[in-house]
Amino acid sequence: MGRKAGLYINPKKFGGVVKPCMLEMTAFLNCLALNKQIDEKCTRQKELLITCTQLQKGRPKNAAKTINYHLQRLGRDKFH
Asked: Which ranges carry the IMS import disulfide relay-system CHCH-CHCH-like Cx9C domain (predicted)?
């Protein structure tokens, strides 16, 4: 695989990449924490989070998440 060939990039170092729905999820979790885990009081935040996640279903993944796949593919062609 890619690690044997020395081709590996730690995806955690790409911290500047925006995570989809992070604000909505944070708002929902904060609301749950403030309301003692009673989700009936957080319906607005819950609906916003569900809407955001449904919009993300059809979008392609970020290139930073698939960089290791491409490195493995290139390494496989190079070393075989």
From this structure: 17-54
Taking only the tens place, the pLDDT of each residue in 26-71 is 999 999 999 998 889 999 999 999 999 888 887 666 655 567 777 7
Listed residue (49, 27, 31, 53) closest to 40, CA to CA: 31
CB 9, CB 70: distance < 8 Å:
no
**CA triple 19-20-22, angle to 5 deg:** 75
Interatomic CA distance for residues 64 and 10, integer angstroms: 10
% of the chain at pLDDT higher than 90: 34
